[in-house]
Structures are given as structure tokens and as C-alpha cells.
Amino acid sequence: MRFRRPLILAAAALTVFAVGGCTSDKPSTTTAADTGAGAAQTAAASTAPASGTGEQSKFFVQADYDAQLAMRSQTAEGPADKPWEQAIAPQMVSTAEYKKDGPYHLCFSNAAVDNPWRQVGWKTMQAEVALHKEISELTALDAEGKDDKQISDISELQAKGCDALIVSPNTTATLTPAVKGACGKVPVIVFDRGVETDCPVTFIKPIGGYAFGADAAEFLVEKVPAGGKILALRISPGVDVLETRWSAAKVAFDASGLQVVGVEFTDGDAAKAKGIVNDYIQRHGKLDGVWMDSGATSVAVAEAFEDAGMPVPPMTGEDQQDFLRKWKDDGLTAVAPTYPTYQWRTPIIAALKILKGEEVPKTWNLPQPKITAENLDRYLQPNMPPLHYALCGCEGMPGFPEKWGGK
Amino acid sequence: MTPNVLAGSRTRFAALANPTSVVFLALAGVILVGWALVAVDGGQFLTMETVVGVQQRSAALGIVAVGQTLAIMAGSLDLSVAYLISLTSLVAAVTMAGQDSNIVLAVGAVMGVSALVGLVNGLMISKLRVHAFIATLGVSLIIKGILSDLYDGPAGRVPESFQHLGYDRLGPVPVSALLWAAVALVAWFLLRRTKYGYRVYAVGGDVEVARLSGIRTDRVIVVTHVLCSLCAGIAGLLLASRLGAGAPTVGTDGGYDLESIAAVVLGGTALAGGRGGVAGTVGGVLLLAVLDSVFNQLEVNSFFKDVVRGVVIVVAVAVYARRTGLAGRRRT
Amino acid sequence: MRRALPILVVLAVLLAAIAIVNPFFIEPAGFLSFVRRAAPLVILAAGQYLVIVAGEFDLSVGSLVTVEVVVAARLIDGDEAATWPVLALLIVLGLVVGLVNGAVTTLLRVPSFITTLGMMLVLSGAVFLWTGGAPRGALSQAFRMFGRQTGWAVLILVVVAVAAVVLMRANFGRTLIAVGDNERAAALSGVRVTRVRIIAFTLSGLSAAVAGILLGGFAGVSAQVGQGLEFQAITAVVLGGVVLGGGRGTVVAAMAGAFTLEALFTLLNLYGVSGALKFTVQGVILIAAVAAGAIRLPFLDAPKVKGDAHAVS
């Protein structure tokens, strides 16, 4: 009996096709023009091998780099006390075609919640939703870091009767077809990582990775005397938003008199980062500066110098509380560029604007502050957990600080 | 070989003693409970989108798990499938380079690469007598190194026509699910209707006895690993078609190594080999996918999902162990 | 000790190669800092050895390490006074997780690969369910001391190593190997197989707790601290010549395997082997070591014609 079962299943399957007919969920045809938006103009690597920074990343796009560095000094438009509503050099687009009456059902396809940055952001987004009575529901699916699941999630969400779809893509290239598929049916808002199509109504991001990497590198160029030895610590290769950070730093280091003695990957693991720094101290006797593409392991790096009985050289971090506290307590020479988590508020605000027919920027460039010795006290929050990101823009929201793990 | 040998004395429980029946009963149970829970939550569970979603979500894992079933049935296992999937998705997308004319070449290249990896796995396990766990773990490290040396992000492009594999459907059944069904049917046929299948059961049951009874056990192991890797290659092709490109992390992000093993044992195949089958694995994969879908509908936190998944897998295998335990002692 | 000889030779060669590139390595401070860094993996390898030699696997140790660190941070929350009670609790937690692994594997007859795979999912899910997705709280200075100060870490390592060797020389060690070699024969000769296996799992849980305390101390709170450690520990044990499937190998060799793995990482870093190909080298060495062992062993000691080179449990 059990031998026959698959045959029965097959027969059942055939019947189903006969009844069902043929359909495709494939997104509409791609035109050659909108794929690989920046790839074509990728700059040939600017070479300066003597500085030890290696080849320029293939993700480097000169035009984007120039634009981001320029944006750092531009003034953002919008309410000064609400950076998540501000936009730098906005090119407004009309959204009249999406105007409809509330209440609104928003949907969100989230790449993952697997790190503290995304956790803080996700809590902030939920709090933002709670602020708006006209939102009846937010349906959110977590792709758990899997491209394939996010593709299924996006198509599943289209069946939920959403008025707007927010997407935080797990990977730029591979999520593009799915986002394109959704664009025809519902207004789409993309934030954090982009997609290779301009079909979303708006794409929300802070200034970007080039500005982050340049902010950190320029600080070291300023603080470390010429000829100084710099160690660059990166999380992992091949992640677009991290590649841009490093490639901008590389440009800055190549133009400086600093010597980059190593570029290493930490996987975001504090123990590994500490070990790497330890190795470099042993091999080179000392290091004069540490550049980092994110703050997750900054404290471990500072401790590596302490454990070796050395002063901590100028270094860079991010807006996580553990690093800010270390910086304050030990009087480090440091800078913390940010990739603000308040950008998780903006998609909700954008969705409501779109559904009410108000204009939104095509590319919504949020300001991207950097924490320096001067403004450190403003961002240090002793009551918040060590991995909380200071730039959540969540201080005034209901439930703060408990909802974010503070006390 | 089957627990049904005791059926004479326990006729009433015969169906329950068969893990395949248990897993399909559990599947029906989960669908019912899920439907009820989602209904209480104010949603609809058995919509077209959910049904299609469950199949889309399980197709790639299902194909890998069918291959993994063969390996486990033969008393082996394959930890290298996750990295092999990443590798083959890249081989496919890079070879195609967006051109329809390259599809055949790309499929051939993927099959070639997969067969080679399977051959290496099989030879190391059978000829060099390296434990399958270590051999395939070592191979996955080797592939990981090659991947991160050659690629630093998604690469290649799959032509439009090839994406039909990942997105088209016939009524409620996606083409990807058909592909899975086809792979499962072939594996079922091999296991149940051919001499090779008989030998797999024999080798997985007791490799010494199999050898003494004249089976060339080494050859069985090698063929099994080639087939297992080919399944991973097919899954890589399917994922490349879904993503429109190859991605060096698609296999590991999906956790296809441990998850496929979990699905196989959830389907009632004994981890020690020699007992089980493809039908159970299909049930196991569907069970995981339906659970996922219920969680998705209820927007359950992904950490809670992990807890439930872990408990379900262990409980299921404990249940099978109780049922079959009466028929024979645990093999060590 | 004869069994441990090959891995000790390999280790000596690797250490010498490191010393050539980095003279600081032979100075006490340099060498001790290497030992400190290797300590968590060596301790995990000792625990994993007990399980493997009994014919089982423990895949849950990586996530158990993460759980220990995250739980410690949340419960201590920067309060020095909480250090000792929490340390005691962490040890108990490790023992309990190991006990559950052992009980499910032996009493419910679930293959350990599946038991500990399930435990891995449950642990990593449960701990972040409890902390709301990301670690919170902070470790105290007293807690950090064990992993951060070389002296403490090395001392703990020595204690664990001595305890493991003594344990394996005692009656328990002999019965453990007998169980892994041939369960049925051991049972017939009066060994309480179930109890021996459960103890092995419990001790593996304990080793993960100690490793977690050291790792948390070394680098602070992190959600990734235990990632992949289970496979590294198994790799280390196997490198030491311990046979998966049970019954063969010594705990000294397993710990030497862990040192070797750590030395290999250090060496590859020192020689600047591109980060990417590092994995490939690691994979080749792993397979080569086991293949070499499998081919040589039959001549070394003839018995145990079990032919289970590919059997899982």
C-alpha cells in the first residue's frame, strides 16, 4: 500500500493542473537599463598600492562617492529637532495617484532582526506605528536573513490587502525582481539597503556608507602623524553597504601619508577582533590608529590595547552605548560616524504621506551625524543597554526607555 | 526492515508504527491547528497565496532533503550541501550571464560541478575511510574558501526565460514544486524499484553484512553521494532562478545543511541508515514549511520559531524511536 | 600517550613555524597570550572528547556558550556583587543542559546528532526570546577577570586539563571508552551504559559553561560569541586522532588538537594567507589528518573491525 502512495499523489497533482491552468508570479520583464544601475560606471580602481590598502572595491562608484561626500556639508530640509523627517537635497515626486482614505493597512518585509542594530530599529518602527491612529494594522514578515524567504514573503504580503509595502532588502541584487513585481500593485517604500530599480515611490537612507567611511578615515588622517601605522577592521567582504564604507576610507588613506598595515575581517566577533589586534601589536610593535567599518567590536579593540599594556591610539566606532561609555570613561581619542537607526521611523512617515497624496523625495537622504568629543555627552545614555544605538530618535516615544531595554 | 513485521500482534497500531504515516498525520494536524489559530487571529490560512507560498518555500529545501535522504539511508550524511548550493547558484548565474543560449551549458556545468563534489565526498568516505561528518565538513570548508576567494557578493545574471522555473505556476502548483516532485519520484523509484535501492538499504542497515553478501559497498556510497550532490545542484539552479543571480551566501543563509538533515529525520528516516524513505522526507519538509507558514501568518517572533522547531524535531524522533524500538535495538 | 604523539609533533612544528616569523611568541608573555586565546577551545575540545569517545556528538556547545554569556550579562547587569552567584548559576545551567542532552539521547533513544541539533535551536531561540533579540545588561569587572587576565585563564585551563586526564585514567574513563567501543559488550560486562553516557554529556555542558565564562571575560558581551564553536571543537577532537563513532583516542590528543587548530589559525594569519583561502587550507588539513589516521590505524592496532567509517551514531 505504501508503495502506491506517490503514484496517487502524482495523479492528484495532474488533476490539479488540469483544473488550475497556467499562471506566473514572475515580475514583469526587466529592461537592460535599470539593472546594475551603478555597475557600468564603476570607476577603475584609483591606485596607490604603496599605502597598503589593496585594490579598490568593485562596488566603488565615483559619482555616488562624490555625491555623498558633498551631502555631508549640505543642510537638510525639515524640522531641525526631527532628523528622521529631514531630507537632504530632496527631489520631490508627486504621489497623488496613491491617495486614498484611511484607515491604512501597512505591510513590511523585513530582511532580519538578527543583530542589535536591526533590533533597535524594529522596535523604533513599531513605536512609530503606534503614534498614528490612522494605521489600522502593520503586517510584518521577518525573512530571517534568507533572500529566498524574503522573495516569498513579498509575494505573500501582496495578498494581504496592504495599502503600502515597506521593504528592507536583505541583498540588493537578488531582491530587485521581487520588489519590481510588487511595484505595479501597491506603492513600495524601500529603506536601508537599496534595490537596482527606481520603481519604488521612495528610497530612504542616511547619506550612506561613503560618508561613514570617509568620516572615520579623515579623523585618523587628522589625528595620526604621517607615516603612522593604521589597522583597518571590517566585518565581512561583499556586503554592499560595508564595501562603500571601506572604499571611501581607502581613498582617504591613499591620499594621506598613513600606512595601512592590515585590512582584516572580524565577522563582527569581539573575540576575533581582539585576537587580530593582539597579533598586529605583536607583529608591528605598535599601532597608531584603528579604522573600523562598524562599532560592534570597538570596545574589544580598545581592550586589546589595554591588555597589552599600551595606550589606546586614535580609533573609530559607532553610536553603540558600550563604546560611547568606554570613550567617556577612558578619555579615548575617537570618532563615531553613525548609520542612524532613526531611519526606521521614516518609512512609516513616508507611507502615510504617500497615502495622503503628499509629495515625498524620490531618494530620501536622511542626515547622518557623527559623534565627536564635543557632542559625546549628548549621545551617552547610561541608562540604556550596552548594545543600544544612540541615534534611534526614540527618546520621546511612548514606552521609552523600557521598550528598548533601558531603565 | 520495516516496523510492520510486528503488525501481526499489533494490527491496530500498524499505521501508527510507520513513521511516514506519523509525519503525514502530524502534517494534517498542524494544518488543522494552524487553520484554527489563524482563524482566531482573524486571518485566512488556506488562501491561494499561502498554499503557493508553502510550496515555494519548501521546494529548494525539499530537493536537497531528497538527496540527503539517500545519503542518510546509506548510513552517511552530507554537510557540504549548503556551500555546494551557493557554489552552483553562482556557477549557473555566471555561466548564463543573462543569455538564453547559455542555459543548457550552465545546467551542464552545474551538474558537472555537483557530480564532482559528490564524487570527492563519496571517494573520501569509502576509499579513504574518512567519517562522512568530517569528509563533508572538510569539503564544505574547501568550497567556502573558494567561494569567498572568487566572489564577494551576488554575481552573474539569470535570463528572463530561466526565471520561469522559479516563478511560474500551474494553478496552485509552482513549477518549482513540480521539479521537487519529479526529483522525489526519481529517488523513490531508485530506492524502491531498483537494485541500487535495495543495496542502499542493505549498506545503511549493516555495511559489514552487506559487504559479506557480495555488495560492492564502496560503489554504493559513491553513487549515493553523487546523487545527493546532484540534488543540491538542482536546488542551486532553482535558487539562482528565484534570485535572478548567484549568491555566495544563499546556501548557508538558508541553513540547508542542518535543516535538510532535520527534515529527513523528521520524516522518519533513521539517522543511522537503513530505515526510512523519500515519502517521509517530503512529509517532513512540508511539515516544517507549514509550521513556518503558520508562524508567518501569526507574525511569530523568529526566536520563538527556533525553539518550536528544535522541540518538534527532537520530539518527533523520540516518538519514532519509541515506535520502532520494540522492533529492534538502537544501532550504535 | 603514544596515540597522542603524531598530533604533538604536528603541534610542535606549527609552534616552531610561528616562532620563526614572530620571535615574541617564544617569550613567556607571548606564549601565554596564545595559550589564553586557545583556552576556551581546548576546554570545549576536552568536553566534546568525552561525548565523542562514547560514540556521540554534541552540537549544542556553540549556542550554549552564547547563552552563558548573554545570560551572564543580563543577570549581572554591571553589578559586581552579583558576580559569584551568577557564576554558580552558569555552571548549573551548563550541567543541566548537558544532563537534558544526555537523558534525551539515552532514555528517549534520540540520536545525539538530532538531540543536540534540537538543543542548539532551542537554546539560541530561547535566550534571545528572553532578552528581546539582542544582548542587554553588562558583565562585571570580576567576571571579566577570568577571561581577560592571562594568569586566570591559564590556571583554569590547567585545572580543566588535569581534571580531564585524571578522569580518563580513573574507572570512569575506562568504562566510557568501553561504551564507545562496543556498547553491548560493555553492558554485558556490567557497565551502566546509560549513566556513563549521561555523565559524558553533562561534563560537555560543563565545559561549554567554563568556555563561555572565559570567552565572555575575554571579549565582553556579544551575540556571536559561540557561533561555529561546535564544529571547531569537533574538528579539534578529530584532528587529535579521536575517531568519530567512539572507542578510540585520548583526551590529551583531543586537547592538543585544539591547540593545533588555534596554532594553525595564528600561523595562517601571520603568513598573511588571504582570509578566503584560509578555510580551504583548514578543510584540506582536516580531511588529510583523518584520512592519514584511518589508513594508518589498522596496522597500529588490529582490533575493532567494525567498518563503521561512515556510520553516524
What's the quick description here?
The complex is a heterotrimer of chains A (407), B (332) and C (313). Chain A is 35% helix and 16% strand.
Note down, in words, how this protein is organized.
The complex is a heterotrimer of chains A (407), B (332) and C (313). With 407 residues, chain A is of the alpha/beta class. Helix content of chain A is 35%, strand content 16%. A six-stranded parallel beta sheet of chain A has the order 4-3-5-6-7-14, with helices on both faces. Chain A has a three-stranded parallel beta sheet with strand order 9-8-10, sandwiched between helices. A three-stranded mixed beta sheet of chain A has the order 11-12-15, covered by helices on one side. In chain A, strand 8, helix 7 and strand 9 (259-265) form a beta-alpha-beta unit. In chain A, helix 2 (62-71) crosses helix 6 (209-223), helix 4 (147-157) runs parallel beside helix 5 (172-183) and helix 6 packs parallel to helix 7. The longest helix of chain A has 16 residues, at 5-20. Chain B is mainly alpha-helical and 332 residues long. Chain B has one domain (3-325). In chain B, 73% of the residues lie in helices and 2% in strands. In chain B, strand 1 and strand 2 (173-174) form a beta hairpin. In chain B, helix 4 crosses helix 11 (217-243). Chain C has 313 residues and is mainly α. In chain C, helix 3 (61-76) runs antiparallel to helix 4, helix 6 (141-148) crosses helix 10 and helix 11 packs across helix 12 (251-270). The longest helix of chain C is centred in the middle third of the chain and has 27 residues, at 193-219. The radius of gyration of chain C is 19 Å and the shape is globular. In chain C, 59% of the residues are buried. Chain A binds chain C through residues 113, 115-116, 119-120, 122, 237, 264-265, 267-271, 273-276, 278-279, 282-283, 296-297, 299-300, 303, 307, 322, 385-387, 405, and chain C through 22, 24-25, 30, 33, 37, 73, 131-138, 148, 215, 218-225, 227, 266, 269-270, 275. Strand 1 of chain A pairs antiparallel with strand 1 (168-170) of chain B, so a sheet runs across the interface.
